[in-house]
Amino acid sequence: MSHHPIPPTPLVAGLPATVPFVAPEALQRQSGRTFRLRLGANESNFGPSPRALAAMREAAGRVNWYCDPESYDLRAAVAALHGVATYEIVFGSGIDDLLGLVVRTYLSPGETAVTSLGAYPTFNYHVAGYGGRLERVPYRDDRNDLEALAAAAHQHHARIVYLANPDNPTGSWYAAEVIRAFQDALPEGCLLMLDEAYIEFAPADEALPLDIGDPRSIRLRTFSKAHGMAGARIGYALGPAEMMSAFDRITLHFGINRVAQEGALAALADTTYLTYVVDEVARGREEYAALGRELGLTPLPSHTNFVTFDTGSPARAKALVAELARRDVFIRMPGAPPLDRCIRVTVGLAEERAAFADILRATVPEIPEIENR
Asked: Domains of the chain (ranges plus CATH)?
């Protein structure tokens, strides 16, 4: 007796079979080679603080226990750091998880969300997965076009507008007064989702202060970037108590692992290490910028842990990514115009930056020949 496969829901059946990113591990399996330099995923090659590593090693011995579903100690530490109440914080397994939580809570099927064309794609993935509609606005002058984003939000009666600040993939940054004006320009009833994954690398004196009482926005933070814990999968959202309470109704309460909780708590306490990473990344950005100018690749201003270079054309950018991969260097390029003429490179350790500089100097002169193959 044959059995027919049980079909998924019409919504899931209609989605493309895709993931937001092709992982470097998948690229290595395809090529049969191992990357010498892993500079494409904006991970911190500096790693977690020694105190965080020690805490995670100790926690691994208790991994047979579930995590604390309230993240009580970590919640208290984050609340103290930002001067907010513990009930104004919700945790998730990285910003990727929190993006889905916000979309599921505030975007009904058929309603519209607005983002930039070529911005962080996991937001789009969740909007599609929960049945929402997506309107995308092209970047302008290599920055999020805030005026056009606000206009699209009005035109399409958007429920959510997504903005990464500092931005991925450009590295650009808008100071507090600009973000305030942008939020005021959005329609009533529209939630501004501020993805601040790279906030530790931005100028603290220009950052938008936390106004947790404002119900028009939610702020997303992570331990993946400056704290070097991308593989641990832990982040948090800051917002009004009513919003956090709504998330509590649907969040996966045991979705954060115990090892990540303990590591994040120790990472917050190690401010000396965080300062070291931020300062070293700033130094590396300057080195990359000088390298780009030397080779005719225009570096875009960056307030993140990566630098994006304008190569001049999509063909040249694609050729650079391919040739660097052939030389065992993993980087990425934005896929949507007008940013598809760019490549994006993570700021690594000093020795990694030196090795990358040598490889890039040898690669760039060969690109015209590569394009003609």
From this structure: 22-47+272-371 (3.90.1150.10), 50-269 (3.40.640.10)
